Amino acid sequence: MKYTYYPGCSVRATANIYQDSIDAIAPALGVELEELDDWNCCGATAYMSVRELMSFAISARNLALAEKYHRDLVTPCSACYLVLNKTNHYFNDYPEMRKKLGQALEAGGLSYSGNINVRHILDVVINDVGTEKIASLVKKKLKGLKVAPYYGCQIVRPEMGFDDPDDPKSMDILIDALGAETVKYSLKTKCCGASLMGTEEKMALKLCRELLADAERNGAHCIITLCPLCQMNLDIYQSKVNSLFKTKFKIPVIYFTQLIGLAMGVKPEKLGMKRLGVKVSGEMKRIIEGA
């Protein structure tokens, strides 16, 4: 299964462990990701509220570049997924926006007809690879590992999304296929604060505290996510949450691709596990090492 791959900025920098884990498991899953040549930043979600047309234009450039390959465009980042999908939606459904974007692309020597299907890599893993294939690759049963699936607020927002916007189940199904246990996690689509961490830190830390407390309250050994910003806020800033609110959270926050890799028997260092802010310890470490 071959796809055009739009990595986005985060996995090339702050979320490079996400990319490492994707690279580690993709061949075994039968997934080939060919990186989109000359891609540019999607503009991220915040830019749309500042300069909407410019945001759509730079995002549309990626769609135009990808269209010539006649394949689905896959991204690992929730923000990229949302922005590229929204751009596609506006281009196809609003004639005036289509005209403006067409003019912008023409000025750059490009054109777009609106035929790209934008997908998140979780969608590919669940719906193209399938849980039966994934379960067949499990070498380390993660029995006893209690996992809180955190989807965040962006992956479920596009109307054309691949999961239920109110109660997504894709990662829940994946956790079961890997032999682990999905814990009840009522806040799984609540915002982590996103880029507020750079402007309204205390507010973002409060949101993160609520997410961590819900996972702890339900006995989770770890949280899995699919969004670079969600992972960074809950992982790297967990110590700040503890400092501000006098809590004692020690909950590893990992990517769903890392969990797949662990179950497949991939060495932790290849998955970036040793570069987490909150190290795997206690019951989670015992289960993984003894699996």
Can you describe what's shown?
A 4-stranded parallel β-sheet has the order 2-1-3-4. Strands 6-5-7-8 form a 4-stranded parallel β-sheet, sandwiched between helices. With 291 residues, the protein is of the alpha/beta class. It folds into 2 domains: 2-121, Glutathione S-transferase Yfyf (Class Pi), Chain A, domain 2; 130-290, Rossmann fold (3-Layer(aba) Sandwich). The chain has 13 helices and 8 strands.
- Coarse structural class: alpha/beta
* Helix segment tally: 13
Number of domains: 2
The amount of helix comes to 40-55%
Features:
Rossmann fold; alpha/beta; four-stranded parallel sheet; 2 domains; Glutathione S-transferase Yfyf (Class Pi), Chain A, domain 2; 9% strand; single chain
Secondary structure blueprint with pairings:
Blueprint: E1 2-5, H1 16-29, E2 32-35, H2 44-48, H3 52-67, E3 73-75, H4 78-93, H5 95-107, E4 118-120, H6 121-129, H7 131-136, E5 146-149, H8 170-177, E6 181-182, H9 201-217, E7 222-225, H10 228-235, H11 238-245, E8 253-255, H12 256-264, H13 282-290
Quick structural overview:
By secondary structure, the protein is an alpha/beta fold.
